[in-house]
Amino acid sequence: AAMKDGLRSQVSAALKEGRVTPTELCQRCLALIKSTKFLNAYITVAEETALKQAEESEKRYKRGQPLGVLDGIPIAVKDNFNTAGIETTCASNMLKGYISPYNATVVQKLLDHGAVLLGKTNLDEFAMGSGSTDGVFGPVRNPWSYSEQYKEKSVPKSHSEDEESNWVITGGSSGGSAAAVSSFTCFAALGSDTGGSTRNPAAHCGVVGLKPTYGLISRHGLIPLVNSMDVPGILTRCVDDAAVLLGSLAGHDPKDSTTIQDDFKPFELPNLTDVSKLSIGIPKEYHASGLSSEILALWSKAADLFKNAGAKVVEVSLPHTRYSIVCYHVLCTAEVASNMARFDGLEYGHRSDTKDSTERMYAATRREGFNDVVRGRILSGNYFLLKQNYEKYFVKAQKVRRLIANDFVKVFRSGVDILLTPTTLSDAAPYTEFIQEDNRTRSAQDDILTQAANMAGLPAINVPTALSERGLPVGLQFIGRSFQEKQLLTVAKWFEKQVQFPVIQLEEVKRHDDGVFQHQKSASFS
Amino acid sequence: AARGCGGVWHRARQCGAGRPWPGPFPRGQRAVACNARGGAVPAGKSGLAPWIPVVGLEIHAQISSNSKLFSGSQVQFAAPPNSLVSFFDASLPGTLPVLNRRCVEAAVMTGLALNCSINKKSLFDRKHYFYADLPAGYQITQQRVPIAVNGSLSYSLCIDNKMSQMVTKTVRIKQIQLEQDSGKSLHDDTRCQTLVDLNRAGVGLMEVVMEPDMCCGEEAAAAVRELQLILQTLGSSQAVMAEGQLRVDANVSVHHPGEPYGVRTEVKNINSIRFLAKAVDYEIQRQIEELENGGTILNETRAFDSKLGCTVPMRDKEGKQDYRFMPEPNLPPLILYDAKSLPANMNHQQVINIDWIHERLPDLPSVKREKLVEQYGILPEHSFALLNEDGLAEFFESVVKQTQMKPKKVIGWILNDLLSYLKQHSLTVKESPVSSFLLADLLNLLEKKEISSSAAKQVLAELWKGEGKTPLEIVKEQKLELLQDQKELEQICQAVIDGHENE
Fold it and tell me: Which stretches of A290-415 are assigned E, i.e. beta strand?
């Protein structure tokens, strides 16, 4: 019943009581990572350092001085966060083999709280994509492709080779992190979210995906995609765990001048019983074309759920939403063009053998180091930044961005507390189907429901809601007011409790199960 | 027309022929290009109207600060290569800029000293270009809204080589912007390699943009010299050109009166004030000759070759660059406060108060000069000479305090004897073997008529040796005292007369 009680009451308690040790926990995760290797969720598994960290944690527990809820908890980090001593690749030839000399602030904070870093998770190259299919290490497979729920529902076409072609994508770009959490190989993972990169794969993999308010969590050490929209994302098995992670990560960082100055007070989420004072907004523009009827129905059902519980549910309008994608495209590619300029092969990363001239070396390095998607975005970004185009595209896009942000301000000012929308247009597509379209078209479609929150810098969360007819997860998104994470998560937690999203049934997990992983009560750590 | 300029070229040439004052270079090494060539090629030789040269300057002053503009790396001249490089300076992925408060204060001080209005909100931008010593592929600068705008700088120079005929001119300051310095590339041609040193990468610069209000090398040189003194007085930059702390690019064009400005060239690679005057005058003359011979001026970047004394096109700057400017997304707008706008609950460590800085500005060179003239009754040109040498004014004042001699007389000893000795031996005032105390001692002997003026010079010559003797000891040793005893004098005279009875 208390299926998503979380870290705090489950694993952390088990660790404290000595029912399980950090080393055992770490070893089981490592074993599960091995047996689910086919998911391709991890780029690097840091077995040795993880076991060492677990050992340290164990000593702290033995002394009776654990560092908190996260002490000894195995976590994974998307491979676009710098980790000292562990390869950071961004799933790109450009950074293959690159070992950073420093930890990203968020990584350091997790380690300081005693978390055990299992490894680095797969993504689209430099986080540019919505499928986790466009990295040099190959696509990530959605664990639900191998679940009993999916296998039951999917029409068996003929033989086992179909299983190979039937697997579905994780969404992206933080697909590796979402798959890692979803397949129980870790208890929580860091993703990044620029246009939906945490929420989208969270929805497809049936996990919680939180994109906090811009400026609440440090970006120092996150290899940027779009600096003005990037936010470290949190992927967990339940909303309570997201709050635990947020508590350990949020707050001012002197190394990131865009973080807020005010102190952040970590919070525990109350169990909401009365939602009658809540006003839930349903933005009509999110009835986007391409929205599956299944998701539309689920969305209405969710709205009814709130209504029936006494909440006020109102239709609202965010009129500039329709310009969001094109505007995002201009701003994103412009910043990409700028941010990628540093990869010239001189200081770090890939360097071409071409020695004719420095310019030729630059060109060859960048051609060899970046995939078509990255190069395409650099090209269009530079076009938008040309002197004769700057006003026409970049400045205009910035103005539209302001209008989009103002839409939200107006809606929240009108008394709406939280917006409820779908996270994705449909459930996860089979890989073979997904790659029919190019990255740009796919990103434009897939980010449509998520990236307006990035434009406005608002906190948003995906909550797994139900399984689709095909037996795949579908999630809904809640968007909150700036820096009102507590309110957002409280509502999300209430919703999570109502919908009772099922636990994934995986053969591999069952094999490793001894009560900590698969048992519903222990599915999460808080 | 060129505002604040002497007017047309023949007047400009006059000014060029004048001795630069306050001149950074000794006599005899003046800007020859202007003189010789200007004389050889009369303006408007084919009956055309005279030429008006227009000179504007872009000056990069390295901010005097312990650490870099956006990182904690130390700033130090001539440190071992790549020993002062933070992760951010090397543009490691994921690193972010953090603005250095000291650099902002230095820019505000400089802006106030140059009569600028300080923008309470300024912005940072990225300027993109690929170069080996620019690791990020862009420089963070202030293109749209710089920290200070609309100022002015007054400077003086003398006319017709006469120290007594000084004129004061004003050049408008368009803006001052904060930006990052680049690293240094060293090209090893024999091994076909470029070596990159990132020690300088990310050091804070103030770019001071001067409007094209000057018309010849002497004016440009005098303006830069005055700016240099101001920066050094403020301590916002050490402004030593030889160490690259002050770098000057000159924009030069020529046109006929009543016509629009001509196509301008940018002259770079100027590493002393003397070369600045030379480079500008050479470039003016080159453009006039080119145009009078039916040629055209290209909008190009040229380098000054100090050995050949001429400017040459810079090869690697061919073609027009589009810098693809973009707002720097990792730095919020830079907000400054004044007494009025300062929020009451603000932590003073976290804000910069323009008024607070204003109240604490030291006396600027122009004010110091006025005070010297007023307080000591010395000539204005003497006040220039005193400020031109670091520590000289203080030395002078210290001597004045310790002697009964009138300042008007002391100044002669300072400028003619002390200064020329120091120049001859390439010493700074601080390195002078004769302290202000010793010189005052000597001048007191002179003032009390214990020694003659020529004896004083003899004593001074002895003092330079720095053997630790006092002036009085030297006087005694060498028997240089003036005789005050009338009887003794009479006796000597009598003895002389007695010895020459037959004559």
Answer: 312-316
Contact check, Cβ <8 Å, A102/B136: no
Token digits for A386?
Answer: 């040309």
A9-151+166-323+399-523 has CATH 3.40.50.2000 classification: no
Distance CA B109, CA B103 (A): 10
Q: Looking at residue B162, what is its pLDDT?
A: 66
Tell me A168's DSSP state.
B
B287, HSE (Cβ side, Cα atoms, 13 Å): 30
Interface of B with A in 196-255 (CB under 8 A): 196
Shortest distance, CA B355 to any CA of chain A (angstroms): 25
Which pair of tokens denotes residue A69? 């809820």
Compute mean pLDDT per 10 residues along chain B, 503 residues long, and list them: 39 36 35 32 56 97 98 94 97 98 98 98 97 95 98 90 81 98 91 91 98 96 97 96 94 95 94 94 96 93 93 73 96 95 80 95 95 94 91 94 94 92 91 93 91 90 88 87 80 85 71
CA B316 to chain A, closest CA, distance in angstroms equals 12
- Residues A39 and B210: their CA atoms lie apart, in Å, by 62
Would you please indicate which residues of A are annotated as catalytic (active-site) residues? 78, 173, 197
Q: Which residues contact A300 (CB under 8 A, 6 or more apart)?
A: none
Query: Would you state the structure tokens that stand for residue B5, as one six-digit string?
Result: 């300029």
> Phi, psi at residue B204, to the nearest 5°?
-70, 135
Burial class (CB in 10 A: 0-12, 13-18, 19+), A125: buried
- Taking a C-beta distance cutoff of 8 angstroms, is the pair A253, A220 a contact? yes
- pLDDT mean over A172-183: 97
Given a cut of 80, is residue A318 above it in pLDDT? Answer: yes
Q: Decide: A191 and A231 in contact? Cβ < 8 Å.
A: no
Burial string for A304-334 (b: 16+ CB within 10 Å, else e) reads: ebbeebebbbeebebebbebbbebbbbbbbb
Q: How far apart are CA B135 and CA B130, in angstroms?
A: 8
Reported as a single tens digit per residue, the pLDDT across A354-377 is 988 889 999 999 999 999 999 999
Mutate to test the interface with A, among B70, B87, B89, B92 (most CBs of A within 10 A): B92
Question: Across the interface, which of B94, B322, B331 has its CB nearest the CB of A104?
Answer: B94
Check if A394 contacts B (Cβ < 8 Å): yes
Rounded to 5 degrees, φ, ψ at B228 are: -60, -45
Concatenated DSSP letters of B358-423: HHTPPPPHHHHHHHHHHHH---HHHHHHHHHSTTHHHHHHHHHHH-SS-HHHHHHIIIIIIHHHHH
Q: In a 10 Å sphere around its CB, with 0-12 CB exposed, 13-18 middle and 19+ buried, how is residue A417 labelled?
A: buried
Residue carrying structure tokens 């190979």: A164
> Residue A101 carries which DSSP code?
S
**Is the distance from CB of B142 to CB of B177 less than 8 angstroms?**
yes
Burial A162-189 (b: 16+ CB within 10 A, else e): eeeebbbbbbbbbbbbbbbbbbbbbbbb
The bridge status of strand A188-193 relative to strand A74-78 is parallel
Cβ contacts of B329 on chain A, cutoff 8 Å: 226-228, 258, 335
Q: Is A256 within 8 Å of B330 when comparing Cβ atoms? A: yes
Nearest to B50 by CA among B63, B41, B37: B41
Rounded to 5 degrees, φ, ψ at B138 are -150, 155
What is the reported pTM?
Answer: 0.90
Q: Tens digits of per-residue pLDDT, A457-504? A: 999 999 999 999 999 999 999 999 999 999 999 999 999 999 999 999
Question: For residue B366, how many other CB atoms are within 10 A of its CB?
Answer: 18
Residue/partner pairs of B5-8 with CB below 8 Å, 24 or more apart: B5/B52, B5/B53, B5/B54, B5/B213, B5/B214, B5/B215, B5/B219, B6/B215, B6/B216, B6/B219, B7/B52, B7/B215, B8/B43, B8/B50, B8/B51, B8/B52, B8/B257
CA separation for the pair B375, B382 (Å, rounded): 13
Give residue for tokens 């092969």: A345
